């Protein structure tokens, strides 16, 4: 059954660069507010409860949470691709089935993450070396956080559904409301009532529940095939298989990224407090580039997904060329900005002259290499939009994670300096970019030898 989907945000027609930017900016702003929310959360807890509580709700705790949440966020990317392809093909029946299968997957994943997260909290925290004075607070925080596993996963899936249909504004509005709610509740529970880290965790869970209510309310009020009906939430076997084939490798990739970053962090820590502090400060500024490039990556995944589903292969290709140009221009502007005012940005986090000196050296070494990364994010997004996930995951895992870990274990013995460690970034970016470029142009990504087939 194929029919026109009412109230759609189809990106299969119109000026490509305008549509990509219209999709890109809400994602970028959403990421910005997410970062602002995390920063505000840390400030409130740190100011009211002290350094032990601050460490309990951030740092290693965040890494442990990302190991699990990142995996299920990867699963949601599989739903994005499947829904966007059927949406682009204007296949109402499959859009509806895809949305209800996605929600069933989110509910099942939420239950799993609640059980695994709660049970593995203490072993995970001990594994990453959480200090003894922080451990009890961190366990309390994570136990409450994981009890809210279902709304956390459903929000990510809901955002994926809206973006798959070309609507990046709605999940941004929901995120904004959720962030404001969380900050207000943090101030009330932590600063006002004095609930400690329990209050911070409860505030996070409540804010996620608010966003889930908004997602369900909005989807249930739709008048087209994207309308959510509770009684129809169930698995459709073929669609579930497609989502898992695309999303599962992306989830594994997220885990591998986190592990490789942990190894690099451990290596950097070995250079002492000044270097670790410089890296922490630089990492905050570094997020500006990653917010931009990740937003472009999400945009091109949906763009290619819808146009691939509609059989508009040439338009999909033009979109990829356009987003690569936009990504390159943005990267050059960001790089120039870092060199112009980056040192002043670092001063927001520290006034220690030695830390600043190390931080500036890190920045000036890494920033020029950003341009070598854009092909990885944007071409992998395009490839996944066409329904291919295994090969991009293998390329990323081998090119970025495995090579980077080998570098960290070998090169520091030859060049035992911080720049020797940081060189793992451009090395892995260049190798992986070459692999993605070759695969994209030589791998029959769009199945042009046969008509795109969507189950």
From TrEMBL:
<feature type="transmembrane region" description="Helical">
    <location>
        <begin position="144"/>
        <end position="165"/>
    </location>
</feature>
<feature type="transmembrane region" description="Helical">
    <location>
        <begin position="322"/>
        <end position="342"/>
    </location>
</feature>
<keyword id="KW-1133">Transmembrane helix</keyword>
<feature type="transmembrane region" description="Helical">
    <location>
        <begin position="390"/>
        <end position="410"/>
    </location>
</feature>
<feature type="transmembrane region" description="Helical">
    <location>
        <begin position="20"/>
        <end position="37"/>
    </location>
</feature>
<keyword id="KW-0813">Transport</keyword>
<feature type="transmembrane region" description="Helical">
    <location>
        <begin position="104"/>
        <end position="124"/>
    </location>
</feature>
<keyword id="KW-0472">Membrane</keyword>
<keyword id="KW-0812">Transmembrane</keyword>
<dbReference type="InterPro" id="IPR048279">
    <property type="entry name" value="MdtK-like"/>
</dbReference>
<feature type="transmembrane region" description="Helical">
    <location>
        <begin position="288"/>
        <end position="310"/>
    </location>
</feature>
<dbReference type="InterPro" id="IPR002528">
    <property type="entry name" value="MATE_fam"/>
</dbReference>
<feature type="transmembrane region" description="Helical">
    <location>
        <begin position="199"/>
        <end position="219"/>
    </location>
</feature>
<dbReference type="GO" id="GO:0005886">
    <property type="term" value="C:plasma membrane"/>
</dbReference>
<feature type="transmembrane region" description="Helical">
    <location>
        <begin position="362"/>
        <end position="383"/>
    </location>
</feature>
<dbReference type="Pfam" id="PF01554">
    <property type="entry name" value="MatE"/>
</dbReference>
<dbReference type="GO" id="GO:0015297">
    <property type="term" value="F:antiporter activity"/>
</dbReference>
<dbReference type="GO" id="GO:0042910">
    <property type="term" value="F:xenobiotic transmembrane transporter activity"/>
</dbReference>
<protein>
    <submittedName>
        <fullName>MATE family efflux transporter</fullName>
    </submittedName>
</protein>
<feature type="transmembrane region" description="Helical">
    <location>
        <begin position="57"/>
        <end position="83"/>
    </location>
</feature>
<keyword id="KW-1003">Cell membrane</keyword>
<dbReference type="InterPro" id="IPR052031">
    <property type="entry name" value="Membrane_Transporter-Flippase"/>
</dbReference>
<feature type="transmembrane region" description="Helical">
    <location>
        <begin position="172"/>
        <end position="193"/>
    </location>
</feature>
<feature type="transmembrane region" description="Helical">
    <location>
        <begin position="422"/>
        <end position="441"/>
    </location>
</feature>
<feature type="transmembrane region" description="Helical">
    <location>
        <begin position="239"/>
        <end position="268"/>
    </location>
</feature>
